[in-house]
Amino acid sequence: MELTEEQQRVVVVRDEQPQKGREAQMHNIRAAKAVADTVRSTLGPAGMDKMMVDGHGNVIVTNDGATILRELDVAHPGAKMVIDMAKTQESVCYDGTTSTVVLGGQLLGNSEQLFQKGLHPNVVCRGFHQASRWAVEHAQSLPTGSVSLNDVARTAMTGKTVEHAIDKAADLCVSAVTDAQGDPKKVRVVCQPGGSMEESHLFPGIILQKEFVFPSTGVKNACLLVNTGFEPEKGQPGPGIQFSSAKEAKQFYTDQTRNVLLDSAKTVIEAMPDGGVLFARDGVHELIAKHLSDAGIDVVRRVMESDMIALSNMLAMPIAHEPSDIPASVATGIGEFKISIREDTIGDMKFVVVEGSPEHVSTLVLRGATRATLDEYERAFEDAIGVTSLAFKDGKVVSGGGSAYISMAHHLRTRAADMGGREQMAVEAFAEALEIIPATIAENAGHDPLDTILALRNDHANGQIESGPDVENGGTCSMADKSVFEPLSVVTQSVQSATEVAISILRIDDIISKRAA
Ligand code: ADP
Ligand code: MG
Q1: Residue with the nearest Cα to atom 15 of ligand 1?
Q2: C-beta 78 within 6 A of ligand 1
Q3: CB atoms < 10 A from the CB of 61, how many?
Q4: Beta strand pairing status for 510-511 and 19-20?
Q5: How many other β-carbons are positioned within 10 Å of the β-carbon of residue 392?
Q6: Greatest distance between any 2 Cα atoms in the chain
């Protein structure tokens, strides 16, 4: 039976039989290429979306390479290496995952041809290594003019679902990053279904998607962070305790737990005599919550760990690990900043809002029609906030659209020419692989990739180092004129990661079954 291309891809990705030598290499290469082919069509401003469906019918529609790769169901070890590399790119640079995977796939594809011409894998690896170093050096020498954070944010969000409101989205992103002084950890994102992107806003403080256990008694100026809960422990009776009836046992537990819990509540009340808010990582029994509420203390229970850490950082306040760690008193502000905690509603949902810190932690409140669009907005913002922060911090950006890749390819060809030897072939193959980025951006926009590459080579040979694919009209244009810029480190990291994964895959000549761990 003839398999369709898609079926072959699935077969390759799922294949995990032991293999030797050339066969092992080819299998790994094919698996890595299959992963690259999966995300290829999402690259660039005209990239398409993927709909991912699991066995339970859960659906994700996304254009984000990192998300697709994270959700991909693969078993082949070679494919897994590529996915791991993509994760590194995502965690270091926040963006550029698709480019990295596509480049890695192309490097492996080109190496296949070198093997057919009789090159040894070691020669290919040495050539790729050298080429990667030269390429990165060249990228670092590209002119980096004055940085417009707005351009960087817009470039990162072009082609995503947020694009229809890109002015608003880029402004929000730049304000958030500027407030946070380029620390993406200080920008939090919450999504609120309903309304439209235009109604999204930046809030100076933390917004928790939580409600108080009992309605609040007003704005509070103190709080306690506790990394545990206030709930009765389920357990065995202590040694030597015997009950004559079930009723007696029940009474005993009720009294005992009640006393223990009320004791811990007492420490909370003593720490905040004028009222405040208790943020607990775990559950808080209704009885205790009521008791605290009567003393003017509002309770937020089951706070997520990341929220807890954010609160702790923002308010410069330690997290108590158990009730006995609770300090005797808590601060109500930092310097001239007074802590203020209240309940607020956005749309018809209740939130707990925390303000008052010299630490510029802010929350982006994203509004959108459905949960699915909001999830996609959130992913686009995460990438954009990440790269805008990189640009804010190191201030080095290069023109985008793959123009830097063409420029690196041009540079490598001139250096390869006076190299000689078989490694020269590997360097040339590397240069050709770099061109896959602008070629794919053009192809996804419906233009001929080969014509575009030939025109780009010509432009770059004539010193137009910012020339890239014109996605609207076809052909080439200056990416700087179109305000398409991206951080230099996204490009260099992408080249380095792709090279590394290609080399590690090429160096494998056996796939052997091992004992399960
Ligand atoms: P990645 O996961 O690699 O970031 P994207 O789908 O986000 O993949 O595409 C990013 C690429 O699209 C970058 O090379 C970027 O420079 C390019 N790009 C963004 N906007 C434009 C544009 N208007 N014209 C051409 N290329 C663009
Ligand atoms: Mg991107």
Answers
A1: 401
A2: no
A3: 14
A4: antiparallel
A5: 20
A6: 97
Percentage, residues of the chain above pLDDT 70: 93
Q: Choose among 187, 202, 201: nearest CA to 386.
A: 187
* Amino acid, single-letter form, for residue 271: A
95 C-beta closer than 6 A to ligand 1:
yes
Answer whether 401 contacts ligand 1 (Cβ < 6 A).
yes
Ligand showing the shortest atom-to-Cα distance for residue 100: 1
CB within 8 A of 312, min separation 6: which ones? 225, 318, 319
Q: Does 241 score more than 70 pLDDT?
A: no
Q: What pLDDT was estimated at residue 170?
A: 93
312 is written with which tokens? 């702790």
Confidence of residue 1 (pLDDT cuts 50, 70, 90): very low
Cα–Cα distance measured from residue 430 to residue 436, given in angstroms and rounded to the nearest whole number: 10
CA triplet 268, 294, 263: central angle to 5 degrees?
Answer: 35
- Indicate the pTM of the whole model: 0.84
Q: Where are the beta strands (DSSP E) in 67-160?
A: none
- Residue 277 in contact with residue 300, Cβ under 8 Å? yes
Position 516 pLDDT exceeds 90: no
- Cα-to-centroid distance, 97 and ligand 2 (Å): 7
Q: Please report how the helices 149-157 and 166-179 are oriented relative to each other, as an axis angle in degrees rounded to 10.
A: 130
Mutate to test the pocket of ligand 1, among 48, 150, 158 (most ligand atoms within 8 A of CB): 158
- CA-based nearest residue to 206, from 319, 293, 312: 312
Q: Could you tell me which residue, 257 or 277, shows the higher pLDDT?
A: 277
Q: What is the pLDDT of residues 122-163, one digit of tens each?
A: 999 999 999 999 999 999 999 877 789 999 999 999 988 888
The CA-atom distances, in angstroms, between 462 and each of 42, 139, 284, 449, 457 are: 31, 18, 70, 20, 9
The pLDDT, as a whole number, for residue 445 is 94
pLDDT tens across 310-361, in order?
A: 888 888 888 988 877 888 777 777 777 788 898 888 777 888 988 877 777 8
Q: Which ligand is nearest to the CA of 469?
A: 1
Give residue 446's identity as a one-letter amino acid code.
G
pLDDT in tens, 364-383: 999 988 888 898 899 999 99
User: Which ligand is nearest to the Cα of residue 102, counting in written order?
Assistant: 1
| 9-43 pLDDT, tens digit each | 554 555 455 567 778 788 888 888 999 999 999 99
Q: Which residue has the tokens 């009836």?
A: 245
Query: Which of 69, 88, 99, 447 should be mutated for ligand 1, with most atoms under 8 A from CB?
Result: 99
DSSP state of 194: B
DSSP-derived 3-state class of residue 468? strand
> If you measure from the C-alpha of residue 61 to the centroid of ligand 2, how many angstroms do you get, rounded to a whole number?
16
**In sequence order, which residues have a C-beta less than 8 Å from that of residue 419 and are 6 or more positions away?**
427
Show which residues are catalytic. Answer: 64, 97-98, 383
State both tokens at 355.
């303000």
Q: Using CA positions, which residue lies closest to atom 10 of ligand 1?
A: 44
